[in-house]
Write a structure and sequence with these properties.
Length: 285
């Protein structure tokens, strides 16, 4: 049974409340070497009210409680930073207006750092766990393949192959025609060389490791000429060659690695094939 969405949002809002309160309390303890006098405690109590009134509305309107931790990325990081800067500025303004004479200024900086770092760790915990799982546990068995294209599509394909082990693939290396990428590592998998070296590299791998059974071309935005050249390089290695769909083809919610297919005429032409009208042609014969 699925929980209502508002339960997750309420849980997220409660989590931010606890984080805001604990960050300010930690800032006070660090500032005063873990000794809070009665006078300082009174200042802390007032500050806790101010910090909740200042930060929680900012975080709410920024939509932080609606974001899913499993899909946190760089834009989320910048949104966290901007939200914390604005919230801390409001908190500082309200506090200085009310208790400016007795409130330690360094608390604002310490609180900002603790709150921001804590939110980043919480938000990105699932992402870091998933990335670490994919990185540290490459498959030991499966059909050995090479990925032709060490760009964004190639790295995405590698990540999905490792995340979906039922596909039965094991990536042993990359091919890429960019000389600057030679020797680089992508999630621990080396870029072995260019496409024209495919035959030599496959022969070398077959002598040292499990037999390479396929090359998958991961260049969905490449031109027809580039794909024909890649196909020729793969054929020189005398092993099957497949490809992945273009962006327009895999925006259907399916796993990219599940859409690996043989090269078609459309792939090699770089455009849809021309459909001739047979009627007018026959009339001239």
């Amino acid at each position: 049974m699925k929980r209502p969405r508002h339960h997750f949002r309420a849980f997220g809002a409660t989590g931010y409340l606890l984080l805001v309160v604990s960050s300010l309390a930690a800032a006070f303890f660090l500032k005063f070497d873990f000794f809070i006098s009665p006078d300082t405690y009174a200042v802390l109590v007032d500050a806790l009210l101010f910090v909740m009134l200042a930060k929680l509305p900012v975080f709410y309107f920024a939509g932080l409680h609606r974001s899913l931790r499993a899909f946190a990325d760089v834009p989320d990081l910048f949104r966290l930073l901007a939200s914390n800067v604005v919230a801390s500025a409001i908190f500082a303004a309200v506090t200085l207006y009310s208790n400016g004479e007795i409130f330690p200024r360094s608390i604002f900086v310490i609180d900002f750092l603790i709150c921001f770092i804590s939110m980043v760790l919480v938000r990105f915990s699932a992402t870091m766990r998933n990335e670490a799982w994919v990185w540290d546990r490459p498959p030991k068995k499966g059909k050995a393949i090479l990925i032709y294209g060490a760009g964004a599509s190639g790295s995405t394909l590698l990540r999905e192959i490792r995340s979906h082990r039922s596909l039965g693939y094991k990536v042993v290396g990359f091919l890429d025609d960019d000389p600057s990428k030679r020797g680089a590592l992508i999630m621990g998998v080396p870029v072995l060389g260019g496409g024209r070296e495919a035959a030599r590299l496959v022969s070398r791998l077959n002598r040292r490791r499990a037999k390479v059974e396929e090359i998958i071309i991961a260049m969905p935005s490449a031109t027809g000429r580039e794909k024909r050249e890649a196909l020729a390089n793969c054929q020189a290695a005398r092993i099957p060659c497949k490809t992945i769909p273009g962006v327009a083809d895999f925006l259907n919610g399916k796993v990219l690695a599940e859409q690996i297919r043989d090269l078609s005429v459309t792939d090699l032409l770089g455009r849809p094939p021309v459909q001739l009208e047979e009627g007018p042609i026959r009339s001239h014969l």
